[in-house]
């Protein structure tokens, strides 16, 4: 994520605009794991997601991509807040939480442990 | 020595200063703390006393200080029922008795030379030590015999690690007790206030009033409390298991110390045990009520006059509790105590590749519970279902618990319906019906159209004419009566323990979830929540205002030795001081537990969760899909 954000804001802005123009039915998303997380990283962190995709479906796609079993806990966050509820669409999430550069940043991590 | 800062320095705790080898108390007080204030004088006094008594005449070395502290804490940890036993019988011998078992490999986890173990260190001002200890209660009792001479030789390495273990346990318990006595505060945690100002408290789905207090306390003490235990049989060291898994013992043990205590790391395991024990308590109750129904049935159908004492007999509560605890005992035989720590760790090693000493989260711990339950099945019908953050999957629950079936009614005419009245069921009744389960044998049964007054719905019910007098539980929505003789339906056969893992925030909990959490406790099927505060697992059982009531496993006790299994005291499995946690300090991971026995209950749970969803909209926590 750092790599991506280290690019100048103007460049990111124009990137997102380009993508949105080219794919009007999709939203640009940057998805990566939290820096403390021990989960596997995603191979790529830039995604174009259909607007109509449900949050739940998106989460399941990521779950598959990092080959995490159904029983293991996985949590998603946008702007250091919990991802909105499962039946909202990615378009809604994007509209409410997108960054000033026009991308939506999503962080995932595993459960907390205690002793 | 840095490993002694095992307790979170951000919180106000007693710790050992690794450099000075002294107990100290850190007193940073966050603004939002609203629990009882520290009794600083008492606290300082007790810490100074402990420090003083750990000093000795000769030149100080880290080793001798260690020994001294451990002597103090060794005595401290022996409060209560195990106290006298410990004093007469050194812990070491007890341990030897455990490792004689064939089940375990012979390598003993702790081998402290007797000569060192029995030697303490002479201190200055002994009298003042013992007298000031009395001021902080009964929990430190230094007897003369423990204050002997300095060890002649420095303690060997494994002895030191043993002493460190004792001190770690000692500090844990010191924190626990200083807090109990109101001398020390722990951020966010406070003893339950139950008075004019805080007149009500909710335990599970029941609300209690402080007048009379005892009614609540009786129920609270009934909850089975699991805590850290020490001196159990070394973990991941059973020959049978290691051989079965094809593990090279020497390689596995090369870099590790075999743990005989879970202090400092096992709290989530204990919390998982507590919530499962709660489910087992319900299972036992179900067994008992079934037995009652059956007795009623026998009484009615055979017009027998069974003495009322039998049908109204109350099972011995203590005995039931003991039976449940037995399933969780450390040191137990594999099959008799399937949920003991040895089994838990072995399953966790096979399943998640976790080693003793690793920490657990809600979902990893519940996965192990599920695996253990599938393997040992202490209750034939109980099934554990784990749901991730996407909520309860209705289909999975139905698939686990339902079986397709058809039921043929007999041509015989209706029987007297009066027979069924004892069961809350009324309606048409046919005597010799046949039930055919998919992929299963046909069984003789009695069929009746039944009505359950609780839900005000018409249903089909079947009563099997067998010894155990089971009432069959059909899915009403799926019941079809094809030609007046054949009933097609799905039969509910399982008791479900559903654990839903939810997340309530990124680093801190989001406040709009607090009301939902409380509402979840009000659902009658809720068996509590696994969760905690930062790094510390707690078992939540209820709430009061914006605080959650919990049982805390962070207290070290002696494990029940195998020799005492038949007649151990269950006293150490009850918690006497209810405590509450400010919800703002909740950890963001929670495991909500539900227990449903019947199709109706599951339907009811679904309805209640849906109602919560309508009420809280996007702030809802547990969804159903």
Largest sheet of chain B: 10 strands, mixed
Number of helices of chain A: 4
Number of E-type strands of chain B: 22
Quaternary state reads heterodimer
Mean pLDDT across every amino acid position of chain A:
88
Roughly how much helix do the residues of chain A carry, as a percent range? 25-40%
Low-pLDDT segments, ≥5 res of chain A: none
Proportion in helices of chain B? 25-40%
Order of helices and strands of chain A: HHEEHEEHEE
Unreliable segments of chain B (pLDDT under 50, ≥5 consecutive)? 1-10, 29-35, 75-156, 306-311, 415-426, 452-459, 464-469
- Helix-and-strand structural type of chain A: alpha+beta
User: What is the CATH topology of chain A?
Assistant: Ubiquitin-like (UB roll)
Domain Peptidase C54 catalytic (chain B): 214-607
GO molecular function (chain B): cysteine-type endopeptidase activity; protein-phosphatidylethanolamide deconjugating activity
Catalytic activity (chain B): [protein]-C-terminal L-amino acid-glycyl-phosphatidylethanolamide + H2O = [protein]-C-terminal L-amino acid-glycine + a 1,2-diacyl-sn-glycero-3-phosphoethanolamine
Family (chain B): Belongs to the peptidase C54 family.
């Amino acid at each position: 994520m750092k790599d991506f954000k280290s690019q100048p804001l103007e460049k990111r802005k124009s990137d997102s605009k380009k993508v949105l123009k080219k794919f009007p039915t999709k939203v640009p998303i940057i998805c990566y794991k939290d820096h403390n997380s021990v989960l596997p990283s995603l191979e790529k962190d830039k995604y174009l997601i259909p607007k109509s995709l449900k949050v739940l479906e998106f989460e399941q796609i990521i779950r598959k991509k990092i080959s995490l079993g159904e029983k293991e806990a996985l949590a998603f966050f946008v702007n250091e807040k919990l991802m909105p509820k499962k039946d909202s669409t990615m378009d809604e999430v994007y509209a409410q939480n997108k960054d000033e550069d026009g991308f939506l940043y999503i962080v995932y991590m595993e459960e907390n442990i205690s002793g | 020595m840095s490993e002694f800062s095992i307790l979170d320095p951000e919180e106000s705790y007693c710790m050992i200063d690794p450099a000075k080898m002294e107990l100290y108390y850190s007193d940073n007080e966050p603004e939002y703390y609203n629990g009882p204030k520290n009794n600083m004088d008492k606290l300082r006094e007790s810490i100074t006393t402990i420090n003083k008594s750990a000093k000795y005449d000769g030149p100080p070395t880290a080793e001798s200080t260690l020994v001294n502290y451990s002597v103090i804490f060794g005595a401290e940890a022996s409060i209560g029922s195990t106290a006298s036993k410990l004093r007469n019988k050194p812990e070491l011998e007890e341990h030897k008795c455990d490792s004689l078992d064939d089940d375990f490999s012979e390598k003993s986890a702790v081998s402290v030379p007797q000569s060192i173990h029995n030697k303490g260190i002479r201190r200055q001002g002994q009298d003042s030590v013992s007298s000031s200890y009395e001021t902080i209660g009964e929990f430190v009792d230094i007897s003369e015999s423990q204050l002997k001479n300095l060890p002649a030789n420095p303690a060997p390495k494994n002895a030191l690690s043993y002493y460190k273990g004792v001190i770690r346990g000692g500090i844990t318990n010191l924190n626990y007790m200083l807090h109990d006595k109101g001398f020390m505060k722990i951020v966010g945690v406070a003893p339950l206030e139950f008075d004019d100002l805080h007149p009500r408290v909710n335990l599970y789905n029941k609300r209690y009033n402080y007048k009379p207090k005892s009614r609540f306390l009786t129920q609270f003490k009934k909850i089975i409390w699991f805590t850290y235990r020490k001196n159990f049989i070394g973990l991941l060291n059973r020959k049978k298991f290691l051989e079965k898994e094809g593990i090279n013992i020497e390689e596995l043990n090369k870099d590790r110390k075999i743990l005989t205590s879970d202090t400092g790391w096992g709290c989530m395991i204990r919390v998982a045990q507590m919530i499962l024990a709660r489910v087992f308590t319900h299972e036992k109750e179900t067994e008992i009520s079934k037995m009652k129904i059956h007795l009623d049935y026998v009484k009615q159908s055979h017009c027998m006059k069974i003495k009322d004492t039998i049908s109204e007999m109350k099972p011995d509560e203590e005995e039931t509790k003991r039976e449940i605890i037995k399933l969780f005992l450390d040191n137990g035989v594999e099959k008799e105590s399937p949920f003991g720590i040895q089994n838990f760790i072995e399953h966790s090693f096979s399943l998640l590749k976790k080693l003793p000493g690793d920490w657990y989260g809600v979902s990893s711990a519940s996965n192990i519970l599920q695996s253990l339950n599938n393997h040992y099945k202490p209750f034939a019908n109980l099934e554990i279902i784990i749901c991730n953050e996407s909520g309860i999957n209705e289909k999975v629950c139905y698939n686990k618990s339902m079986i397709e079936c058809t039921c043929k009614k007999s041509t015989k005419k209706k029987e007297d319906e009066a027979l069924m009245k004892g069961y809350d069921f009324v309606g048409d009744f046919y005597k010799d019906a046949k039930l055919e389960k998919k992929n299963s044998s046909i069984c003789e049964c009695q069929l009746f159209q039944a009505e359950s007054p609780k839900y005000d719905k018409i249903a089909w019910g079947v009563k099997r004419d067998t010894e155990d007098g089971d009432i069959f539980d059909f899915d009403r929505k799926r019941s079809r009566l094809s030609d007046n003789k054949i009933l097609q339906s799905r039969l509910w056969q399982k008791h479900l323990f559903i654990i839903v893992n939810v997340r309530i925030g990124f680093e801190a909990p989001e406040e709009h979830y607090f009301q939902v959490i409380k509402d979840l406790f009000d659902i009658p099927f809720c068996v509590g929540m696994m969760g905690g505060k930062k790094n510390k697992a707690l078992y939540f059982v209820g709430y009061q205002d914006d605080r959650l009531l919990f049982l805390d496993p962070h207290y070290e006790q002696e494990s029940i030795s195998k020799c005492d299994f038949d007649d151990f005291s269950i006293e150490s499995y009850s918690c006497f001081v209810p405590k509450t946690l400010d919800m703002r300090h909740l950890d963001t991971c929670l495991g909500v537990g539900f227990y449903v026995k019947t199709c109706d209950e599951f339907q009811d749970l679904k309805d209640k969760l849906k109602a919560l969803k309508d009420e809280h909209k996007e702030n809802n926590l547990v969804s159903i899909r």
